[in-house]
Design goal:
Radius of gyration: 14 Å
InterPro entries: DNA_S_DndE, DndE_sf
Number of strands: 2
Protein name: DNA sulfur modification protein DndE
CATH class: Mainly Alpha
Strand content: under 5%
CATH architecture: Orthogonal Bundle
Strand order of the largest sheet: 1-2
Structural class: mainly alpha
Number of domains: 1
Organism: Sedimentibacter hydroxybenzoicus DSM 7310
Distance between the termini: 30 Å
Oligomer: single chain
Pfam family, one: DndE
Length: 127
């Protein structure tokens, strides 16, 4: 387990709130999973910025991943390997956070996501 709690920045929380309204997805963790996977699919390393977890949006690692929380950790580790990065807990945690925040920003910033159908279409597009 790479972390006990997932806490987001206020900016990410605000962006997720907008996505919740557009998609009708009620649970933060579900949108966060979409965002993480979207960012991991980008095949680039997110900008290494300091993320200040200043929102009150917090969930346990088990809530984030649900019954499949181990798969999300494995996905981030596999991404680290693909990017020639170490897979120690500190690095995996860092890039989980960077990819999650980037994914939220990208999903919110595309202007493409106007409904849950747009989110599904995005997931099946070939890159």
């Amino acid at each position: 387990m790479i972390m006990k709690q997932v806490r987001l920045s206020q900016q990410a929380k605000d962006q997720l709130s907008r996505l919740k309204g557009k998609t009708g997805i009620k649970n933060w963790n579900v949108l966060c999973r979409w965002a993480l996977c979207y960012s991991l699919s980008e095949k680039t390393i997110p900008t290494d910025i300091l993320i200040i977890a200043d929102s009150n949006l917090e969930m346990s690692w088990y809530t984030f991943g649900g019954d499949y929380y181990e798969i999300y950790e494995a996905l981030v580790k596999a991404w680290c390997i693909q990017m020639n990065l170490p897979t120690d807990d500190e690095t995996v945690y860092k890039y989980f956070r960077l990819n999650l925040e980037r994914g939220i920003a990208h999903l919110c910033g595309t202007g493409f996501i106007k409904s849950i159908n747009d989110l599904v279409e995005l997931s099946v597009k070939e890159k």
